[in-house]
Each structure stands twice: as structure tokens, then as C-alpha cells.
Amino acid sequence: MAHDMTVDAAHAHEEHHESPVVFGFWLYLMTDCLIFGTLFAVFAVMRNQFAGGPTGKELFDLTGVGIETAILLLSSITYGFAMICAHQTKLGAMRAWLVITFLLGAGFLFMEIREFSHMVAEGNGPDRSAFLSSFFTLVGTHGLHVTCGMLWMAVLMIQSTGKTVLSERMMNKLTCLSLFWHFLDIVWICVFTFVYLMSVI
């Protein structure tokens, strides 16, 4: 009886300790919303400040950006599959879906870096105009977040290797990364619509 009470107390303490982790991460995402909101506002002000340089319509390739968008949205779906497998304790399948998600994220970053390098090589870097400065800052900040998400994902894959059961703490880490990854998808949809699409139309 005393042992059961001790176990229950420990379990309650773990829940009490871990539950604020996800809530705290929600608060972090709110601060990230403020950061991206500020960057979008700056881009809105600078979007027509070309300084005699090229416009978005002249620079942006919607086909390539559309492929980037599809890749990132698909990675959100594959991460969802990973979470389903995690809840079902199918850890091998979970890691496989995480690897696929990681590779999709890498593909997205590759295309973004290729776009940046192509623009810079043609003399259209962030120092060319206020429009390009705000563009590189906004899109680059999103790319940096994707990079951090991929590093986080790699760490979780390593930490889960060899395990047959996921602890509550590990599930919280996966849940927080899930929130982060889906948040990046939402931000990118805004980038695609507000930065690329509206600049080309």
C-alpha cells in the first residue's frame, strides 16, 4: 500500500514537472510569433524600396518556391506519422518517419540556399536594396529555424536509439518539436503568400 502511494506520488510529481514544459514551449512560440510578425511588418514597409534594382516579379521563381512549399508541408505530415508511431510505441517506425522528415527538411534548405546563392551571384544580395535586405532577413530567419529544428530532430533520434519504451520526458520533447515544426509550416505559408506570391502578382 505504502509502495503504491509512493509510486503514485512520484508519477504525479513527474506529470506536474513535465506538463509545464509543453505550456512553456507554447509561450516560446508566442515570442517567435512576435519576431516573425515584426519581420513581416518590416518587409511590408520595404517591399517597394527597390533602389533601382530588380523587383520580386523579376527575381522569384514560383515553380521552385512551390516545390519548396510542398516539401515542407509533406515533412509536417511525415512528422505527424512519427508522433502516431511514438504514441503506439512503434519506435522503429517512429525513427524511420523522423529520418524521412529530416531528409525533407534538408531538401527544403538545399533549395533555399540554392536560391540565395543564385541571387547573390547575380549581384542581388541583401545589400542591393531595402527590399532585398528585408527579404533575406525574413526568409533567412525562417531557414535558420528549420536548421535548428533539424538539429533538434537529429538529437531526439540519437536519444531514442536502442530504447523500447519512451519516457514521459521524451514524449514531451517530441511533442514540443512537433509544435515547432508545424509552426514553421504556418510561417512558411505566410512567407509564400505574402512575400513570393504577392510580389509576383
Secondary structure blueprint with pairings:
Layout: H1 2-46, H2 56-59, H3 62-87, H4 91-121, H5 130-160, H6 168-200
Q: Can you tell me about this structure?
A:
- By secondary structure, the chain is mostly helical.
- It has helices spanning 2-46, 56-59, 62-87, 91-121, 130-160, 168-200.
- The chain has a single domain (27-51, 58-200), classed as Four Helix Bundle (Hemerythrin (Met), subunit A) (Up-down Bundle), CATH 1.20.120.
- The longest helix has 45 residues, at 2-46.
- The chain is 85% helix and 0% strand.
- The chain crosses the membrane at residues 21-45, 65-86, 93-111, 131-158, 179-198.
- Heterooctamer of two A chains, two B chains, two C chains and two D chains.
- One of its GO terms (cellular component) is plasma membrane.
- InterPro entries: Cyt_c/ubiquinol_Oxase_su3, Cyt_c_oxidase-like_su3, Cyt_c_oxidase_su3-like_sf, Cyt_c_oxidase_su3_a-hlx, Cyt_c_ubiqinol_oxidase_su3, Ubiquinol_oxase_su3_dom.
- GO terms for molecular function: cytochrome bo3 ubiquinol oxidase activity; cytochrome-c oxidase activity.
